[in-house]
Structures are given as structure tokens and as C-alpha cells.
Design a protein that fits this description.
Order of helices and strands: HHHHHHHHHHHHEEEHHHHHHEEEEHEEEE
Oligomer: single chain
Distance between the termini: 9 Å
Number of helices: 19
Number of strands: 11
Shape: globular
Radius of gyration: 29 Å
Strand content: 5-15%
Structural class: alpha+beta
Amino acid sequence: MTRQAPIGHRIRGRRKDIGMTQNALAKTAGISPSYLNLIEHNRRSIGGGLLMRIAEALDIQPHTLSGSEESRLLSDLSEAASDPVFRTTPIERSEFPSMIAAAPGMIAAFLSLYRAYRSGLDNVDALSERLSHDPFLTEASHSILTRITSIRSVAEIFNDYDDLPNEQRARFNATLVRESQRLAESATEIFNFLERGDAGRPATSPAEEVDDLLNDNANYFPSLEDQAANMRPAIDPDGGLFLTDLINYLESHHKIRVERLPSEEFPTGGFEWDQKTKTVRFSRALPITSARFQAARTICSIEAIDAINGVLDKASISSDAGRHRATEALVSYCAAALLFPYEQFLSDARTFRHDIELLQQRYAASWEQICHRLTTLRRTGSEGIPFHLLRTDIAGNISKRFSASGLQLPRYGGACPRWAVHEAYLAPERVIPQFVRLPDTSEYLFVARALRTGAGGYGVPQSVYSVMIGCDTAFAHDVVYADGLPLERPDSAIPVGISCRQCPREDCRQRAYEMSDTALVSPGA
């Protein structure tokens, strides 16, 4: 199935809002009224110069017509529809674009309800797991079952024996009252215990709110780019921004004490920023690339906070936890903009054909830092390749996700096991390129690498995770990792899906779940 974002409703709505006729808009955009009519009814997609002309004629920003919001709704709706809960009431996948075009707010509300449903399921699973392993809950549950059994036994005695002597009846009555009181006390203890924990949580998690913030802004924040550009000359007029430059600036400009301490004093992370004492502490085992990025983050957390709050004030974030997580994400964004200047980085990326290793050497950065920066090059008129990015841990949990490439990334479950992001764990630190074909016949270039992180010596646990970046094969000739892949032979592409429930491939031996009724095979797949 072709996954075109239904943005025609936006064009039609904006045109009517400003009182412009269809003929007038068609003439200004340089197309026929009939073709514009097809666009407004989501029967034709737009891009490039035509998109720019229509946006200019409607006096709106081009990114408004990018279809990113509609594409995300399509992606999330497809994943939700594959849930077994809809097995008896399947949703026709072919109707998704028209549903979103007709009532995008209603679809967003539906997805919010689905998130709440998934959150509820997660809570049930967590509580079940907790009930099985928490010593207090195990003992309390046993106590409740014991009280219930005792009360039932006394009740059966009263039911079966009407002629009990008064003395026995009084004794059984006392037992019934005592066990009932104990049952109530045990139940109250459990509820109080759960209320002290994190049994409840909002329907939208902080991580999902941050995902929405990044996607709503195409992972590009002009105000933070400008902030970083203004900060850079004051920190280092020569533009090197080495770790020494950043530390000197923290000490001289902000009067912050910087300490390098033995790794054993940092059980996790290898970095600490104490705002109360104005002290930054680095582990001596922390890699230079990580130390440099953390120093840049510290500067941005101080000097860019007003710009960051300006972004957050316009965002739809409902919780303090979500705002805190979003703040951390935007601080990291600003730090990347500071260390990797937009225009210079974009130029180097094109020159090196997006060779991440060469960019690492050029900017003294880590693999993940370079991959992240590549996904943020979305400035109108000076855009980089629309990449997607996915990060998972070794258990398959997705910790970071963003897509500008059109690839649907799972929100509610794990990704297809055939994706390179999983294969990379078989060869840590080795770059794994992959040419894949989805059931809807779209083709992508995936590039993944499994990484180890740690800030200690021998015996200190390390984290292992995999970072995958990729793009549509239309851009593959500009990416060095496509060299040698048989892109001209579609049959050689690895057949993949999005997730098992959404994948219609019946011959996959790695399937973990039965396919949903909405997982239809596309013509030509």
C-alpha cells in the first residue's frame, strides 16, 4: 500500500480560510484546477517546487504542507489497528487516509485512547509481575487468601448448621468478625503500598511526549540553531571547540569548578553537574567525545535555557516529567548545534557522502552524536537527506526513534527482527549496511552499528545498544554505505516488515506474532 500523507484537507481548508478560489490558487501555483482538485482530495501528492509555490500562495510555511503530522497519524493508526483487540472489528487499512483527511482531530483522540489502553495493559503486567516477586505483596496476598478461606468456612458452617449451640455460634461469630477486620486491614495495606509506588501514570508517557515534540517540529528547532550560532564565537573564536576550550569557558565565564576524578567514584554515567556548588565532575575514564558533549550540554543548560523554554511553552506537554525529559532532549539538541555548526556540518556531510566515520574524525564526535545531527538538517532551502534513526538496547527495547524518511517506526512494540539494528549485535562496532524492501514495495537503505558505552575500567558493567540510521534508496547514491549494495536489483533486497503484526509476509521464519487482519499484501509486494 502506498503511504501518502493526506494533506489535501490542509490546502483546501487554508484556501477557504483566506477566501481564495480553487481557480486562483491553481493559476498562482502554475497547475490546472483539475489537478489542484485531485491534490485537495488526496489523489495526488506534492513536493519540491510545487509545494513551495502552493505554500507561498497560501502564505504559510512549507513545512505545514510536509505531511509529517499526517504521516505520523498514518503510522500510529496502522500500528494500533494491528493490535489483537481489533481482531473482531478490523479497521480497513485502505480507509486510513480518508479518515485522517476527514477528521484528523478525531483520529488523534482515538490514538490517545489507544495509548491509554496500552498504558493500562502495561500497568496490569507490571502489577502482576510485582505481585509475583515483591515480598510484601506476596505475603499480603497470602494473608488475604487465608482470611477469605477462613470467612468462607465460617459462612458454610452457619449455612449448614442451624442448630449450633449458643456458645459455638458466639465463637464462630467472633471468628467471622476478627477475620473480616484482618481482611480489610490487609486490603488497605496493599492499596496504601501501591499508592506510594508508581501504579498510576498518565496515558501519554514522557517519552511519547518527547517523540511527539520532535516529530511535530521535524526534529529541527531554528531558535536553538540561532542560539548555538550566537554562543559559539564567545566560547572559541577559532571555532575548534575542543574539550579544553569548553572547560576554560565554564571556569572563566561561569565560575564553574571542573574536576576530573577516578572512575570508581562514578558508578554510572561518568559525569555529574552539581548546580548548587557550581561543580562539574568528569570520570577520567569517560571518552573524550562524551566529555566534550557533556561540557557543551552544561553550557547550553545555562545559556540556552530561555530559548529552550520558548520551545517548550509552545509544545503540548502535559506532565512535569515530560517537560523535564523534553528539556534534556533540547539541551542535547543545542549542544549538537553548538559543536556541529549547521552549514559547515551539512557541507562536510555531502563532501564525505555521509561517511559517519569520517565525520566522527572531522568533529571529534561519537557515532551516535553524528547520526543524531544528520537527522536535524531540515532547514528549508538548505535541507540534508531525510533520515530516520532508531536506537535499541540488546533486549530490543526502543529508546530513541525519529523518522523523516517516510519509514514507519514502531511506537507500541518491537521492530521487525530482520532490521539491521538487530543484526548489528552479532558484530559489535562493525558497520552493517542493508538494502531492504517493505511489503508496500518501498525500499530503504539501513546502516546500523552496535556500540558499547562505559566510564570505568575492568569489571565495570558496560551498556550495549545499537543505533540505526537510514533513508529512502532515492538518496542512496549520496551515501557511501550504499556502495556495493545491489540497489539496481529489487529482488536482491531483504524482505522486511515494520513489526510482526503489521507484516503480511507469510514465509517469514522469524515471525513472533500472528499477522493482523489489517496486514494486507500490496500489489507488487
